[in-house]
Description:
The protein is of the alpha+beta class. It is about 45% helix and about 20% strand.
Amino acid sequence: MKRKDGFQGEKHIYVPESAWKAAADSNVIMSQLYITSMGYFPNATFHYRERPDGCSENILIYCLRGKGWFSIDGHRMEVSANEFIIVPTTKARMSYGADEDDPWSIYWVHFCGENLKGFNEGFNLGLYEGAKPIHLNEKGIQIWESMYENLQLGYGRENLNNVNLCLYHFLATFFYPEKHTDTKAQDERDMIKKTINYMQQGLSRKVSVEHFAEYNQLSVSYFSSLFKKSTGMPPMDYFIHLKVRKACAQLNSTEIKIRDIASGLGYEDAFHFSRLFKKSMRVSPQMYRILRRKKSDIPD
Length: 300
C-alpha cells in the first residue's frame, strides 16, 4: 500500500500559480522565490511519491521523527530524524517515501522562482548532496506554521507578501541554523548531554539527585524539571535506566554473577538491585539471562 497523502493529522496546501503571478504584478520581488505547496505529514506510514519527469521546484523535507529516503536516478539517500534534505529542481527521475518499519514525520515545502537555478548555485545545492543533520528547528517550525496559517486565510496580496518574506527567513533557519538557535535552549540541551555523559561514566557510583544538581550548579527542583523536560524521565529514573541497560549487556554476554553485577553498579544489596531490574524489565536478572540464552540458542 502506497499513498502520497491522507495521513491522520496531516496539513497541506497548494498555492495556484495564478495567485503568485497576480502578486508579482504589484511587486516584482514576489516572483523571485515563492512557495508552490507545503505540508506536514505525521507518522506518514506508506508515504510514497514517484516523479518520472523530476520536479520543476525545489523540495525541502525536514524529518522530525522516524526515517525515510530519497532516490534520484537510482541514487538512494537516507533521511533520518533531526535531518533535512533540499533537492534542487531537476528533470531526473525521482521517488521518495517513508521507511516501512519506522515511518517519518515530516514538514515539507516546495518552492520555485524565476531564477531558481541561480539560487541553487548561490547556495551550492547539489542534486546528490543528501540529508544534513540539524538540531530541533523550533524557529523554522514556528515560521512554517505562520506561513501555513496565512495561506489558509486566502491568496490576497498581503497574505502572499507576508508568506513570501517568511519563506526567506524559513530557509535561513536551515542554511544557518546556528544563527537561529535560542542560546538559552541550546545551553540547556548541552547541559543535559553533559549530565548524561557524566552518568554513563559513573554507573558504579551511588549518588543522589542532589549530586547531579550540584554538578550543574542548579537547584534540585530546577535541574529535575529541565532534565525531565528533555528526556521524559526524572534524573534518578534515567540513571537507573542506564544502570539496568548495562546490567542487561553483562547478563547477556558474560558469566558475571548477579551479585557482582549489582556491586559493580553501586548496589551493595543484590536483592534491591534485582527488584529495580524487575521493575524495569518485567523479569528478574536471572530470568533475563535464561531467556536471552534460550533466544541465542535458536538457529538462524
